[in-house]
Amino acid sequence: MVKIRLKGLKETEEFGKKLGSILKGGDVLSLSGDLGAGKTTLTKSIGIGLGVEDYITSPTFTLINEYQGRVPLYHFDVYRLEGKEDLLDLGYEDYFYSNGVTIVEWGDRIEDILPEDRVNIEIEKTDQEDERIITISGQGKRYNEIVKELNIN
Question: Of 16, 43, 89, 133, which residue is least crowded by CB atoms under 10 Å?
Fold first, then answer.
């Protein structure tokens, strides 16, 4: 597990761009944190790092948005999910086990159906305005490679 402190929107965006630049097809990220913690902001900057040119919005009411970058980006938001059956109807496994990068906002709500090999990112607000503490955890080869490439040990 790795913790980093990001001071301000600019540092959060830079972190996201760097993370996006090293992600590969098949990577799954699970984002968690309170409302307004910055999950969508982080996803937008990861998308920039992946080369997505479209404007990234939260798929709160559609559950998933798809974007094309260096590899496809599949952006889930399961905050309003009524039940896991909604994900079954979407064919979520086709996304999770694809050649794209999958980001799941509120992933902790569906943890039992997420792939074991994933990167979990928890975003916490601090008492300081626009400061965030990012906790990165996970397991598997890609998690270790990503942490190493982020150079934040």
Answer: 89
